[in-house]
Amino acid sequence: MNILAVNLTEWIDRWSIAEISIATVFIILFILVLVLWLFGKLSEAEQKHAAHAAASSAKTQPIQEDSAEDLAAVAMALYLYQNDAHDTESGVLTLSHEDSHWHSQLNPRI
Known about the structure:
Helix content: 55-70%
């Protein structure tokens, strides 16, 4: 029956510590959510600004023509890709054992 004999002040102290702990956790979570929300808003604003800047710069700059070398490289890459012009591997790994001077020193035969 010692459990029931605890002072009222001890129970108040224990409950106040528990309430302070829970309140601290919720305050930290609220601050974390607020910071993440602010970063999201800043990121959205930055993306809108970058998209607007890219759209305005695309209007003012003339389109560059591709050089003949660039077009030849793209054409060759497409040709090689479409005609499967690459090495075909057998998928078999062949290991051969050759005795060397180092091998004979490390593994002497008895």
